[in-house]
Amino acid sequence: MSNIKFQQINSDELIPITNQVIKIQSMAFLYSVFNDHNIGIYVYDVFDKDTNGDGKLTYEDLKSIYISKHDGSDFKRILPQQQEVSQWKEMTTNKKLYFKSIEDADNNGEFDKKDKTHYFYLDLSIPNSKVVEYYPI
Prior knowledge:
This protein is mainly beta. Helices cover 5% and strands 42% of the residues. The longest helix is centred in the first third of the chain and has 7 residues, at 31-37.
């Protein structure tokens, strides 16, 4: 998907989620967080930068992670630049989104043993909360 438009209740207006040129690989509504805590959040896997220099956004570029509120507002990237998200999971017990990324630490354009793995979480219960890096190992 190149972009997504949201329609507000009682309105015919369609509002694009962003004006940036991006490719959305997938989007997921966090139903368990909504059902348990009444917090509506979408998580998106997005290609937002031509990181391999071929002039186009494809699955060969680094994949990032974005979130937005249930109505598409506050769409924002939550992963630092030059990192690729490798997995994410929401935890309803503590209302947090956990995700893991890989950084091309040696800047050789490939992911190998010399690169660094990062672990983050975002507290979904706090509006505008900051992403926190943690070190589980």
